[in-house]
Amino acid sequence: MKNILQFVPIQFTFFLVLGILFESYIGFKTKTLVASFVVIFFFLIISYWHSNKSLLPKGHFNILTYLLVFLIGTSSIYVKNELNSKTHYSHLMNDENNYFLVVEKVLKPDLYSQKYITSVESINGTKVSGKILMNVRKDSVLKLEVDNRIYVS
User: Fold this and answer.
1) What three-state secondary structure class fits 54?
2) Is the pLDDT at 70 greater than 90, yes or no?
3) Please, which residues have CB within 8 angstroms of residue 150's CB and are 6 or more apart in sequence?
4) pTM, rounded to two decimals
5) Longest dimension (CA), the chain
6) What is the dihedral of CA 17, 20, 24, 30, to 10 degrees?
7) Which candidate, 128, 98, 126, 130, places its Cα nearest to that of 117?
């Protein structure tokens, strides 16, 4: 078991998964994530330079490498999350907005409503991104198909 834990890809995978879990449950802000990357990368380069000069390897190089892999894991989830995008519709939502929606998928209906996955094209003329689950009562006259455009005010 000890030999497996000394295998470097296993160590990197552990810190990558740790970073993914950290971002999923706690998270970083954009400025903190970028600043952390810059600082750790800078110290990693200096540490690498010092480690090459000495005969014995230094432990701080390993620690900085693990921190960098941890940040790669957090940034992979941060970039994938649509809510972190500046153009996400949730940043512009209020009661007085006008929305343009496009039906992307018609879902299986339940007893009371028909369900659609729609993408938000614009809010008050401003281009935005994101998806919304839309429920329409079954007794409604509105029957939608894929690629139908809907104006909601």
Assistant:
1) coil
2) yes
3) 99, 100, 101, 102, 103, 118, 144
4) 0.73
5) 79
6) 160
7) 130
Contact 135, 109 (CB under 8 A): no
Q: What's the rounded Cα separation, in Å, for the pair 115 and 148?
A: 14
Contact 64, 70 (CB under 8 A): no
Q: Which amino acid is located at 149 in the chain? A: R
Indicate if the pLDDT at residue 23 is higher than 70. Answer: yes
Position 1 scores a pLDDT of 62
pLDDT tens-digit series, residues 115-135: 999 999 988 888 999 999 999
Neighbours of 96 (CB within 10 A): 6
> Rounded to whole angstroms, how far apart are CA atoms 24 and 27?
6
Mean pLDDT within 129-146: 86
